[in-house]
């Protein structure tokens, strides 16, 4: 079946005509609820947010409280929360606790273990 003919057969018209409010958008419920993983609160703690320096801890703390309370978040808040958590995960795994020794057999991979100075020019 050609891709352009697949949509009508799976009911894309009905999906596209569905009001946005009827579509699932509560992504944060995957992270906040009766079984919230410990890493969620750890990565979104004020301490972790201060350490990574990507986000304003007070703002994120308010968003975390709102999500944890069970209040339905707006689509923007929902996406922001997931983006913040994703960023914190990347920082934790690849900056804070990254160990180059864990990577083996990747001859073409270059690991840079220093930052450029404020002027952006590499040092000799």
Low-confidence stretches: none
Helical proportion, percent range: 40-55%
For the sheet with most strands, the description reads: none
For the CA atoms, what is the radius of gyration?
21 Å
* Total helical segments: 6
Number of separate strands? 0
> What overall geometry do the principal axes of the alpha carbons give?
elongated
Cα separation of the termini = 58 Å
Q: What is the element string, with H for helices and E for strands?
A: HHHHHH
Structural class: mainly alpha
Mean pLDDT: 77
Strand content: under 5%
Concise description?
By secondary structure, this protein is mostly helical. The chain has a domain at about 25-95. It has six helices and no strands.
Characterise this structure:
This protein is an all-alpha fold and 124 residues long. It has a domain at 24-96. The chain has 6 helices and no strands. The longest helix has 22 residues, at 75-96. The termini are far apart. 10% of the residues are buried.
List the keywords.
mainly alpha; 124 residues
Q: How would you summarize the topology of this molecule?
A:
Layout: H1 3-10, H2 12-17, H3 38-43, H4 46-52, H5 57-68, H6 75-96
Helix pairs in contact: 4-5, 5-6
């Amino acid at each position: 079946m050609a891709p352009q003919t697949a949509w009508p057969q799976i009911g894309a018209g009905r999906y596209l005509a569905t009001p946005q409010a009827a579509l699932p958008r509560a992504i944060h419920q995957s992270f906040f609820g009766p079984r919230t993983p410990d890493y969620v609160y750890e990565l979104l703690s004020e301490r972790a947010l201060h350490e990574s320096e990507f986000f304003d801890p007070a703002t994120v703390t308010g968003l975390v409280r709102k999500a944890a309370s069970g209040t339905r978040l707006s689509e923007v808040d929902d996406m922001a929360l997931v983006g913040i958590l994703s960023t914190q995960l990347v920082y934790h795994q690849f900056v804070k606790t990254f160990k180059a020794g864990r990577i083996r057999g990747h001859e073409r991979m270059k690991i840079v273990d220093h930052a450029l100075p404020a002027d952006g020019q590499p040092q000799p």
